[in-house]
Design a protein that fits this description.
Largest sheet: 12 strands, mixed
Bound molecules: copper (II) ion
Oligomer: single chain
CATH architecture: Sandwich
Shape: globular
Strand content: over 45%
Structural class: mainly beta
Distance between the termini: 32 Å
CATH class: Mainly Beta
CATH topology: Immunoglobulin-like
Number of strands: 12
Radius of gyration: 16 Å
Helix content: under 10%
Number of helices: 1
Length: 168
């Protein structure tokens, strides 16, 4: 068994509301967080944002943690996009935040990698489908040590700042 992720007030509220995450085709820990695991690596609360029908790109966010040694996310892939890249945001010379591809995303023991708006994210380029709020899409993550893991990413509203069930 892996250590449980601490419950957040949001997730506690979800349980009170009687939303049964366990009925969905992904793993839910007792705290109600959405989790996927392979080897020592756990992916917690993946989410994405709805896109306009003509949008060429989409993003995915999540937290990556390891219960063992250091690992690295080295690739991502999805049938809904032509290319999937690992990205971060960096300030350019003129003070504008711009996205940049990164080769890997490090996951150190006790230092989860938090993919979130304004920072690290997974970029889906050449979207083959519109990302619709309330739906989810498959995403395959490849870790250097833990190997390959397929997750399902729930889609939140277009301006969401967190997973679909959080108050936006
Ligand atoms: Cu990006």
């Amino acid at each position: 068994m892996r250590p449980a992720v601490p419950a957040s007030p949001r997730l506690a509220a979800l349980r009170v509301a009687g939303i049964v995450l366990a009925a969905l085709p992904w793993l839910a820990n007792p705290a109600g967080a959405t989790e996927f695991s392979v080897g020592d690596v756990t992916v917690t609360d993946p989410w994405s944002r709805a896109t306009a029908p003509t949008a060429p790109t989409g993003v995915a966010f999540m937290t990556l943690s390891t219960s063992g040694d250091t690992d690295r996310l080295i690739a991502a892939d999805s049938p809904i996009a032509d290319i999937v890249e690992l990205h971060t945001h960096r300030m350019d010379e003129s003070g504008i935040m711009r996205m940049r591809p990164v080769e890997v995303i490090d996951i150190a023991p006790g230092e989860p990698a938090r993919l979130a708006p304004g920072g690290l994210h997974i970029m889906m380029i050449g979207l083959q489908e519109t990302l619709v709020r309330g739906e989810r899409f498959p995403l395959t993550l490849t870790f250097e040590e833990a190997g390959t893991l397929e997750i399902f990413v729930p889609v939140a509203g277009p301006g969401a700042s967190g997973p679909p069930d959080s108050p936006n």
